[in-house]
Structures are given as C-alpha cells and as structure tokens.
Write the structure tokens for this entry.
Amino acid sequence: MALADEVKSRVADQRLVELTNPDDRDATTINSTILNLAVDDISAEFQVLAGVQYTNTDSRHVTYAVDGVVLKLLAYMGQSPSVAAFQSWKDTVAKWLRPVTGNNRIMPKSSSKLTPAKEAPDGAIVRPYFDLNSSFGELVPNQDDSSSVRGFPGANF
C-alpha cells in the first residue's frame, strides 16, 4: 500500500477533504494532487531524516510518515502551530527513528582470526575455571544440602 493509501486509511475522509482543499469550503472530495505533493515531500524528508527510504512494510515508518503527511498538509494551509509541530516531527524522526532504522548505523564486526570452538563436543557440562577453583568451593550451583553455607567463603547467609 502506498503512503497516500496509508494516509487515506488512517485519516477521516472529511478531515482529508479539509486539509487538501484549504481554499474551497464546499469541496466534497480529496484533492489527490495536494495529497500526492505532501506524500512526495514527506517521502523525501523521511529519507533524509531517517537515513533510509520509506517502506510501508515497516510499521514504524508508516506511523511517522502518516503523521508527517498530516502535518505537512497543515503547513500547506499556513497554520503557524503546525509549523512548530512539523519541526518537532522532524526532530523526533531524526533523533529516535534514525538510530533504529537508518542504513548508516554502525554494524558490529570483528577482524579476529580466531574461530570459536564447540563448548562441549562430547556433551559434558563445561564450567569455567573459576568454578573449579578451590577458593570458590562453597559456591556450588544446585546444591541439595541446605545446611551448607552458600555465598562468599566465610560469609554466613
């Protein structure tokens, strides 16, 4: 579904008629030209702000883009509060959506030449060296004897 269709499915028809026909109070249909201009503008701004192209398969994109189209339509009407709201939308997309969905995020990678070995190829339970160390003898996991002291050596819990 295209962004214009997403907007139409989420915003009431009468509201869209008012937003896309600001000079015609008697309008009864959505001005698709104005709507498509707003959609194009938001798609372009979304790509710049979020660092990734809008796609309707990502619900986060749809949520922010639909809000952006409505705010852009309000800005087209010349409503000054909507200009501040639109700036807030831009800041939100850049601050919160870009790090999550942007293509320019740093991906983890390693240049190590080591390859991890299987932990226990024969199926045996493997414990780290410090579990086998005698100074941690009192820290035995799943111990059935409730009378023994558990915790740090010398601690009475």
The two ends are 62 Å apart (CA to CA). The CA atoms of residues 4 and 39 lie 6 Å apart. Helices lie at 3-10, 13-20, 32-50, 59-76, 80-101, 129-132.
